[in-house]
Amino acid sequence: YVSLALNGNWNPANVVKGHKAMVQIIANAVNPDVAGEEAIRMSRLGLTDSAFVGELKSGQYRDLETLIKKMSGKDVTVNKFLSVAHTAKKLGVEAYAMMDVWAKMANFYQQVDVLTDFHKKNGDNLTAEEIDRKAADIVNRTNITYKRAMPIVRAAESVSITRFGTYMAEVFRSQVGHAAQAIDEYSQARMAKTPEAKNAMLIQATRRL
Q: What digits encode the pLDDT tens for the residues 67-103?
C-alpha cells in the first residue's frame, strides 16, 4: 500500500482492478490456455515480472513428455502425479511473486486515468493504446520492476552473493524515478494548453510527492 500512496493512487476501484488482473495472470501461469483480457494486456505492456518463465517452459516440456509416453503405450501415472504437483507449485510460486505486482497494476490503472483526463482536457488526440504505453512506461520507472534492475546486482544475486540486492536496488531506483516523474509532471502542468489540464497534472504531481 506504500506503493499506492507514493504513486498518488487513492482510488479503491484501482486496487480492486489490480487484484482482478493478478488473479487472471496467476490463472494464465497455471494454465497457459487460460488468458484473460487483462492478463494479455499487462503482459503486452511489460508490467508483469513473472517469477518463473523457466517453470512454465519446464511444465510445457513435461506435457510433451507425457504425450510421447502415452503414444508409445507407456504408463503415464507418475507423470500425471508430477504434473499435478507441478501445477500446485506453480500456483503457489506465482501467487507469492505477484504479491507486490498487484500494486503496480493498480498504479497502472490510476496512471491511465490520470493521462486520459489530462490529455482530454489538454485537447490532445491520443489513442487508448498510446495512453496504455505511456502509463506502462511511467509505472515501470516508478515502481519495483526487477527486469530493470542493474545487471551487476542481478548477477550477484544469481550466484548467491546477496539475497536481497536486487530488491534493495529497485527500491532505490524507483524512489529516484518518483522524484523525476514528479518534476516531469510539474513541467507538463506548466506547459499545459488549458487551465483544466494544468490543474489535473498539478494534482497528480503533488500527490506523488
A: 555 555 555 555 555 555 555 555 554 444 555 678 8
- Reported as half-sphere exposure (CB side, CA atoms, 13 A), residue 181 has a value of 25
- Residue whose C-alpha cell reads 490532445 in the numeric block: 124
Cell of 185: 509532471
Cα 39 to Cα 4, 42, 53, 91: the distances in Å are 20, 5, 15, 15
Q: Supply the pTM of this predicted model.
A: 0.70
Q: 110-165, pLDDT tens digit by residue?
A: 999 999 999 999 999 999 999 999 999 999 888 877 666 666 666 565 656 666 66
Query: Which distant-in-sequence residues (6+ apart) come within 8 Å of 107 by Cβ?
Result: 3, 4, 7, 9, 14, 18, 139, 142, 143
